[in-house]
Amino acid sequence: MSISRGSGRHLVRRLAQLYVGLLLYGASAALMVRAGLGLDPWDVFHQGVSEHTGLSIGTVSIIVGAVVLLLWWPMRERPGLGTVSNVFLVGLSMDATLWLLPPVDSLAYRVPLLLGGVLLNGAATGLYISARFGPGPRDGLMTGLHRVTGRSIRLVRTGIEVVVLITGILLGGSAGVGTVLYALAIGPLAQFFLRLFALPGSTEAGEGSRVVARGDGRTGNTTLRQ
Predict the structure, then answer these.
(1) N or C terminus of the chain: which is more exposed, having fewer CB within 10 Å?
(2) What DSSP assignment string belongs to 3-16?
C-alpha cells in the first residue's frame, strides 16, 4: 500500500511539474514579446507569421506545433503526454499572458521584462523536462531528422533553428539582443533548474540540460545522445 501511495504521489508531482512548467513557459515567452528586444528563434518565426496572418502569436505557435507533430509520422517518432500538452498549453498561456500584460514603451520596464522572461523560461524548462512525459514537437523533429539523416543532434538542431530564425526575420519577427541573451543563458539556466526540480531518484538532469543547451528550450526528452 505504501508503494502504491508513493507511486501516486510521484505521478501527481510529475503531472504538476509538466503542466506548471508548460504554463510558465508560455508566460515567459509573452514577457519576452512585451519586452520587444528579441525572441527565441521559434518565436521570431511565430511572430513573423502572426504579423502576416492576423492570428495571435499563441495561435500560430499551436498551429506550427501541430504541423511539426504531423511531420513525426513518416519518421516514426512517438509522442507522449508532454508532447501533445506542449502543442496546446504553451500557446494558450502565451496569449493569456499577453492579454493580461499591456504593452510597455519605456526601456526601464522592457529590460526587466526581458530578463524576467529569460529567467522564468529557464525555470519552466527545468520543471517540465524533469517531469519526463516525452519531447516537445520541435525536439521530436530534431531527433527524427537526426535518426533519418545520420547527422549529429547539434548540426540538425542548428540547421533547423537557423532556417526558422532567418525565415522569421524575413517575415518581420523580432530578433535582437534578447535573441542573443536567450541563446547564451538558456543552457546554464536550464541546467540549474533541472537539478533543482529533479525528481527523487532521477539521474537524467545532467543529460537533459545538455539537450536544452543545444536547443530552444522546448525540450521534453531527457534521454537524448548527441
Answers:
(1) N
(2) HHHHHHHHHHHHHH
Distance from chain centroid for Cα 133? 14
CA distance 153 to 121: 22
Separation of alpha carbons 67 and 59, rounded Å: 12
Report the chain's terminal Cα–Cα distance, integer Å: 41
The residue type of 166 is I
Helices then strands, each counted (H, E), the chain: 10, 0
Per residue in 183-200, pLDDT tens? 999 889 988 999 999 887
pTM: 0.85
**Do the Cβ atoms of 128 and 82 come closer than 8 Å?**
yes
Q: Is the pLDDT of residue 207 over 70?
A: no
Dist CA 120 CA 166 (whole Å):
25
Concatenating the DSSP letter of every residue in 56-119 gives -HHHHHHHHHHHHHHTHHHHT----HHHHHHHHHHHHHHHHHHHHS-----HHHHHHHHHHHHH
Q: Give just the sign of the alpha carbon dihedral 183, 188, 193, 194.
A: positive
Distance CA 103, CA 176 (A): 18
